[in-house]
Amino acid sequence: MIVARGLTKTYGPKVAVDGLSFTVEPGRVTGFLGPNGAGKSTTMRMMVGLDRPTAGTVTINGRSYADSAAPLRTVGALLEARALHPGRSARNHLRWLAASNGIPVRRVDEVLDLVGLTDVADQRVGRFSLGMGQRLGIAVALLGDPPVVVLDEPVNGLDPEGIRWVRTLARELASQGRTVLVSSHLMSEMALTADHLIVVGRGRMLADCSMAQFIADHAASYVRVRAPRTAEVEALLRSRGLDVDRQGSELRVQGLDSAGIGDLLGGAGLHLHELSLVRSSLEDAFMTLTADSVEYSAHPVAQEAQAAR
Ligand SMILES: Nc1ncnc2c1ncn2[C@@H]1O[C@H](COP(=O)(O)OP(=O)(O)OP(=O)(O)O)[C@@H](O)[C@H]1O
């Protein structure tokens, strides 16, 4: 498991990571979420010794990364800044890493196969697409068959098939009992991949709970009601003290479940065309929670102009 205690990193006056304490447990996928600049990459870099904490500690299975005798066998990491020699082939890159970490060379072909790069294993990595580079980065992370896997934005640059593959892989690694920490900007994807969430904003902990708990705590749900006599339905629901938000011909009702609303309207002889529960997504929950922690937010007009482009 990964244990952070009071983990802090400052760059001059900038506090990138601000006293984070959490535990990433084995046997499940933990999603690491936060707006741009929240400190996710810095936290992951400290886990694998690429950055030194200003204060606090982070340990992998009880030891700091620097104390690990065989780092690649302890924790496998895919981090954003990959140092690949562009002239080297994928196979040679992995062979070199295997040799310098005491990993049997046969493992190279196993991981190439696992990430789907066998056919291009002898091409120079300088010619790799972003997606191929990501797959190679994941191959590096898995080379030492580590019990702890840390993946920073692993689906960056991957096509839908690749995204699904990463999801299946992360879940498989967790089901084998490994500790899996994955950061991503794709909320819909994270909702399908992670069991547990750690959410940070401006370097601080905002939430550390199960996916289900997170959505229950931070996402609203409502009952969508469509009925031919909308105004009468709206008046009746309001008269019962329910919270009704009218959006065109649709009523969004909070305060009573679908069955209760159906019974109420049926009792009044009002016909229904639709009665459905709408749950907001992980993305909605995330936006609600992190609204105050966003460092770089677009002005609404700028967003519209971008959408029109
Ligand atoms: N080497 C550095 N020097 C100065 N500031 C840095 C450095 N690395 C990160 N920062 C700052 O620390 C903060 C956290 O950055 P970090 O990359 O960890 O965030 P993140 O959550 O991974 O963001 P993103 O989702 O955009 O990748 C940001 O404000 C960033 O500008």
Provide a descriptive summary of the structure in words:
By secondary structure, the chain is an alpha/beta fold. The protein has 2 domains: 2-217, P-loop containing nucleotide triphosphate hydrolases (Rossmann fold, 3-Layer(aba) Sandwich); 221-279, UreE, C-terminal domain (Alpha-Beta Plaits, 2-Layer Sandwich). Helices cover 37% and strands 27% of the residues. The chain contains 12 helices and 13 strands. Helix 3 (90-100) runs parallel beside helix 5 (130-143) and helix 8 crosses helix 11 (282-290). The radius of gyration is 24 Å and the shape is elongated. It starts with a strand and ends with a helix. The model has no long low-confidence stretch (mean pLDDT 90). Bound molecules: adenosine-5'-triphosphate (ATP). Keywords: ATP-binding, Nucleotide-binding, Transport. Pfam families: ABC_tran. Residues 2-227 form the ABC transporter domain.
Keywords:
4-stranded antiparallel β-sheet, 13 strands, Rossmann fold, elongated, 309 residues, 37% helix, Alpha-Beta Plaits, binds adenosine-5'-triphosphate, 6-stranded mixed β-sheet, alpha/beta
Please provide a brief summary of the model.
The protein is an alpha/beta fold and 309 residues long. The protein has 12 helices and 13 strands. Adenosine-5'-triphosphate binds at residues 11, 14, 16, 34, 36-42.
